[in-house]
Amino acid sequence: MALVMLAGQASVNGALYGSERLMVVRLARFCALPRVLPWLAAAALACPAAASAHDFWLQPRYFWVPVGGETTVSLQVGHGSLRQPSPLTLDRITLLRAIGPKGGVDQKPGLKPGAGVFNSPMSFQGPGTYVVALETNHASSILPAIRFNDYLKFEGLTPALKLRNQTRTTDAPGREVYSRRAKALVQVGPPAAKGQAQVTRPLGMTLEIVPEKNPYTLGLKDPLPVRILYKGRPLPGALVMLTNLEFDGHPLATVLSDASGRATFKVPHVGSWLINVLWTEPVKGIPGADFDTTFSSLTFAYPPNVRYQ
Fold it and tell me: Is residue 212, in this structure, part of any structural domain at all?
């Protein structure tokens, strides 16, 4: 297996900053949107202000490989000029599996630290669509109040913002623990319309983006519906974003998940794509943390042999 891990994480006052928990300006992405969700319109007026973003995903070097082929995978964070390989360290990874038509294979034992973007290759057990899945443990973060409040607004975490208003803590620093969930779809050989239930089956992640159809077998005019599950249940009201990773200065589309946790996108069948979402809930009993936040992403690409260096 094939992930590169760059050593080291920055710490400020005991809390992780930069590094794996990259603080990048996401507000500019919203300001560039041709249409902004109404409840974000006021925030969009504050384009010069800094906001934080934490998009994180699995980036196979090749999303499509021939039968018997292989690919490497990198971890990416940030967008545009701030995009870079994530310096997530090996000890943060709790799960790394490749799930195909014949079941899952643990890829974690093959992880190796390295200084480059790519590392040793991942191979697959025959043809099919493979779900490469990654989970991390928790890290901590502390943000100044204004940055944390902006972050809650721009990420659509309105329940947390309302709680801070109700408890009159909007002037307090934002303290949270957070973890990552990421999936990537790797196609081995030609796509098969049947027998690929692993693509649309939940894996049991804390926060998970579950495609209801295989993106690689959709018709050109067919939309892609996904369901957002939080702790196994549909999550309504989450801000779900679709980003073209080849032009990733801003999302192509943003959708609030409906009562069944569903969001639907029209995805062009060209280029590399990221769907991402995050959610948070208040916690007690964790020293130095008021919220537990989970980030989740799904990546896939068209046409064959899409490549990122």
Answer: no
| C-alpha separations of 51 from 21, 47, 149 in Å | 13, 9, 9
**How, if at all, do strands 139-143 and 128-136 pair?**
unpaired
The DSSP output letter for 127 is S
pLDDT over 50 (residue 230):
yes
Coil, helix or strand for 116?
coil
Q: How many structural domains is the chain composed of?
A: 1
Helix (H, G, I), strand (E, B) or coil at 181: strand
Torsion of CA 183, 185, 188, 192, to 10 degrees: 130
Cβ proximity of 5 and 30 under 8 Å: no
Confidence of residue 78 (pLDDT cuts 50, 70, 90): confident
Which amino acid makes up residue 244?
N
Nearest to 33, CA basis, from 237, 248, 226: 248
- Does residue 155 lie within any of the structural domains? yes
* Nearest CA among 272, 134, 256 for reference residue 216: 272
Confidence (pTM): 0.82
Helix (H) or strand (E) holding 153: helix 145-154
pLDDT, tens digit, 9 for 90 and up, residues 32-51: 444 344 444 344 333 333 33
Question: Residue 87: its pLDDT value, please?
Answer: 80
DSSP secondary-structure letter at 20?
Answer: T
Contact 276, 241 (CB under 8 A): yes
**What range does the domain containing 190 cover?**
10-204+278-302
Nearest to 151 by CA among 287, 24, 294: 24
Decide if pLDDT at 141 tops 90.
Answer: yes
Residue 246 lies in a domain: no
End-to-end CA distance of the chain: 17
Residue 258 within any structural domain of the chain: no
Identify which of 255, 239, 276, 204 has the alpha carbon closest to the alpha carbon of residue 58.
276
